[in-house]
Specification:
Radius of gyration: 20 Å
Order of helices and strands: HHHHHHHHHHHHHHHH
Strand content: under 5%
Number of strands: 0
Largest sheet: none
Shape: globular
Number of helices: 16
Distance between the termini: 35 Å
Oligomer: single chain
Length: about 325
């Protein structure tokens, strides 16, 4: 889907700029160009589509359906499963998170999606199956979905809505107003497209700086963190190996498909599978670039709570994996 962006990044950095492929600077700049364009395109398209959904689809019914107590946690399973079906990294999931919040979906359910989406995707599942076999792959998929469900449920019980930024609350209020106006005016689709597009472009414009800063941090780490750095510190079978692996993984930035081959190397070098999976989950589910992007929609306190809950769940998962694998 995004091959054209990768070709453009290769042409711009390795061709026009003349920076050698495989160098720290070349890899970092290539990563920056590719991910910046990819995320901006995703953000614009998804925000535009969510604008259409907000205007035509009964979001209130979905919100009420997901909020019913008789689902007994089913709303978190739905959100986590949907997250697993979307092939996005943590930063690419943020646009959908904004769309969910804008549509009035409960925050805990939205968190379940945000957590699961980068952890599990079909590409990573295919790679996992080929590298580790069926048992480990099933455990990986199920644990990723459960991690999103449990974390989302815990976060939903903490009354965190007041910790969303004023910008998000304004978007929510505008979305409600737009639906009311739409019901009154009954405009045709083509009459509404310019307004929906302008709103989508406005959202992209408002988060542009956060996207650039966040991906810049990720690109620097992608290009300059030396190979073998992490094996040195998490290769020992000690009680602190799992939390240390998670803490070392947080500053990194990669999607699940990109980090799985690294995990195979970790396991081949003797690092326990649970420790390796905990590191992978931290890399794809908890990244500094993601935190930078989320700063637009969450206060610092909410980001800290979100990261804290997910980190605790990942560490617990790592210990469980080391016992059963």
């Amino acid at each position: 889907m995004f091959d054209w962006i990768q070709h453009f990044a290769d042409w711009l950095i390795y061709g026009i700029a003349g920076i050698a492929q495989g160098t720290h600077l070349g890899d970092a700049l290539n990563f920056f160009v590719y991910d910046t364009l990819k995320i901006l395109v995703l953000l614009l398209l998804i925000t535009f589509l969510m604008g259409i959904v907000n205007a035509y689809f009964p979001i209130d019914r979905i919100r009420n359906f997901l909020s019913r107590n008789k689902l007994y946690g089913g709303e978190y399973l739905i959100a986590s499963t949907f997250g697993a079906a979307t092939p996005f990294c943590s930063c690419s999931s943020v646009p959908l998170f904004i769309g969910f919040v804008k549509g009035g979906i409960p925050l805990g359910v939205t968190f379940a999606f945000l957590i699961t989406s980068p952890l599990v995707n079909e590409v990573a599942v295919a790679i996992f199956l080929g590298m580790f076999g069926l048992k480990t792959t099933v455990i990986y998929v199920v644990s990723g979905i459960l991690l999103g469900m449990v974390s989302g449920f815990i976060l939903s019980r903490m009354n965190l809505e007041p910790l969303l930024t004023e910008w998000v609350r304004k978007i929510q209020a505008n979305a409600e107003h737009e639906r009311e106006v739409f019901e009154l005016e009954k405009k045709t689709f083509f009459q509404r497209v310019p307004g929906i597009w302008n709103e989508a472009f406005g959202i992209v414009k408002s988060v542009f700086v956060y996207v650039i800063i966040g991906i810049g941090i990720g690109a620097a780490m992608h290009g300059y963190v030396p190979e073998g750095f992490f094996e040195t510190y998490i290769g020992k079978d000690t009680w602190y190996a799992v939390p240390l692996a998670v803490l070392l993984g947080v500053p990194m930035y990669a999607n699940a498909a990109g980090i799985v081959p690294v995990i195979q190397v970790f396991v081949a070098k003797g690092i326990p599978v649970g420790t390796s999976l905990a590191f992978m989950m931290a890399v794809v589910g908890l990244s500094i670039p993601e935190a930078t992007l989320l700063k637009k929609v969450m206060t610092g306190k909410l980001i800290a709570i979100f990261f804290g809950v997910v980190t605790a769940c990942i560490i617990l998962s790592g210990y469980i994996f080391n016992v059963i694998l």
